[in-house]
Amino acid sequence: MNYLSQIPKLHFKPVTPKIFRTIQYEGLDEETGEMLMSQWNYAELKISPEDQQGLKRLNPLYINKFNQFDIALKNKYKLHIVDLIDYDEGRIILVRRRR
N or C, where is the chain less crowded by C-beta within 10 Å? Predict the structure, then answer.
């Protein structure tokens, strides 16, 4: 499944406090200079149930798959869109600075 193809169609909305704490933990706020929660949007990537389970189980094949996705995302969008992987929930959250 080509997850990059979803990105232009995603509806980004203001980040939640939990997602903003992750942005801060990852240092994205300091790296970009966007220090306020109101300066960020997020969208959730729709991934297959199999991929969700693989992430939850910390299966190395799925971790590698989404590491490759991360590399492709950075190559295409630079720091304009960044992925946050929630292994507990088996979710991929995309964040970007508000325009």
Answer: C
Containing domain of residue 40, as a range? 3-97
Label residue 58 by pLDDT band (50, 70, 90).
very high
Structurally, the chain folds into a number of domains equal to 1
- At which residue do the structure tokens 């980004």 appear? 12
Torsional class of 64: left (φ above 0), alpha (ψ -120 to 50), beta (otherwise): alpha
54: its two tokens: 């693989």
pTM of the model: 0.89
Contact 57, 71 (CB under 8 A): no
Nearest residue to 59 via CA among 99, 90, 13, 98: 90
